[in-house]
Amino acid sequence: MGWLRGFLETRIQLLNSRNFIRRYPHLFSKTLCLSTHQMESLSDMTNNRFHHYFGGDEIVVAGKVDPEKKTPIESFITATSADDVNFLLETISEIEALNDFFAQSKHAFPDFAKQYWAQLTINQLLAERNLATTAEAKRNLTKRIMQLSITHHFVTPFTSLLIESEDGKEKMLADSPNTLKGACCQTLAVSTKTTPAPPAPTVTKELECPPPVLRTPLELRADPTESITVPPNCKNNPNAPPNCVDNDPHFIINLPKSQTDVCFNIDAQAGSILNMMSDPKLGITINGKIVTAKKTKDGKLNTYFGTFGLYFQQLNTKIEVSTEKITVKDPSHTREMKWSESSTLTYNRLVVSMKKESNITVTVDNDLSFLIVLHRVWKDHPVNVDFLGLYFPSSDTFSDTAHGLIGQFMKDPEISVYDLRPGTIPEKPIATMNVKGKQLTVTRGVQKEFHHNRINGTSVTCWFVHNSGKGFIDGHYKDYIVPQLYSFLKLH
Question: Where is the Inter-alpha-trypsin inhibitor heavy chain C-terminal domain (predicted)?
């Protein structure tokens, strides 16, 4: 699938989305939309709504760009598949990018983009003329077709091309087509039936044309410093930080009843798969796979979560989120989403919303949401690797069977902290924590969560439990190791 968008005088920016085709080959009711603030700088757009079944043919949309407004073009492609999957793809491209593309191509000529726009527009007008119901409408369309064909040197059913030699002795007339059959280009589907447009969802940016219905509000872009909104499932304290695991790996547990945050680290081996949440009654399990840094730093080999697996048993759907891609699988289909694009997939009571190179939110029945944040490191970094963070708020949505390194705290155990006293480091006092009938020595410290600021993080003051959370979590952290990415936790 490709489209040409906007030309600056004689140039049109070209964007090719072949990977989109390979992953979603059977879509219909496709629409290319532009942000309303960009419509002032764009004009003469060709058809952007296609209702025919898409099986890999070419779809092109073109339009003019105001020479005075050379801002990047932001577009949104919406589509619906035969199995009722709603898809949203966001693209952001620089207008001048096509110049470099044409400069590298020995087959392209300078006015190619402008000529292509003219051809699309003429073919579209010919199709509209076929459907015109009045003589006046036909005349007006014929006039526009002839004007464009003369300006851009196209032969149409209403024009001919006279070819003359330099000395004027030889002339040849290129006959015009004697029928309008086939005048409609491949990119335009003509139908006498009106297909009602679906209602527009609530989105954070107004679109010029409505996308298919989505089940949750959706932020279409994400700046690294923008707030990533986590659904307010935490009913006791909506402003509290969510329960999460991030960095190498640091767990932050928010306990609303005690109005306290508790932190602990896990030092697992590379390749280990740890259970974050297991709720057999709801049929939900979330596991994370450990990866390590490339080499030790200050005598320590840091570990991170490189992959998360989410299994929704009642929906028979598995979602694998890695630092490379996102895969959504059920018994009959496998769909891939890339971090290089913003997109939304609505399917089987699930909404999977991804922000380009930032984060992905998985929402079930518009009620239960999980956020996974992507952390990129410098390319070819000598030590660090890309990794992921997992976030979800305290919630009473889970059943009483919920467990896991984070899931066990959905029951919100009550704790008390007392006997505050100086520690070996003045700014890190120690205290005694009473939790689950145990007395633990804890240290006041600061950890970072990244659901508000993906780059620098937000500091969270918490009571730190040593020895991989021993005494705070049930059992030992090794009890939470599971054999597969989609395994449920089996409690001993």
Answer: 282-467
Is-contact 129 43, C-beta < 8 A? no
Q: Rounded distance, CA 318 to CA 286, Å?
A: 10
Phi-psi region for residue 9, left (φ > 0), alpha (ψ -120 to 50) or beta? left
E strands, 333-381, are 334-338, 342-347, 350-355, 359-364, 368-375
Cβ atoms of 161 and 153 closer than 8 Å: yes
Q: Which two tokens stand for residue 468?
A: 């991989």
- The token pair that represents 327 in the structure block: 């895969």
- Collapse the DSSP code of 297 into the 3-class scheme (helix H, G, I; strand E, B; otherwise coil) and give the result: strand
Rounded to an integer, what distance in angstroms lies between the CA atom of residue 446 and that of residue 123?
A: 64
* Cα–Cα–Cα angle for 458, 461, 465, rounded to 5 degrees: 120
What pLDDT was estimated at residue 306? Answer: 96
Altogether, the residues listed in the chain come to a count of 492
CA-closest candidate to residue 13, choices 88, 89, 104, 116 = 116
- 450 pLDDT higher than 90: no
Amino acid at 111: D
Is this model's pTM higher than 0.85 or not?
A: no
Q: Quick one: pLDDT at residue 137?
A: 87
- For the cut 80, the answer to whether the pLDDT of residue 406 exceeds it is yes
pLDDT surpasses 50 at 223: no
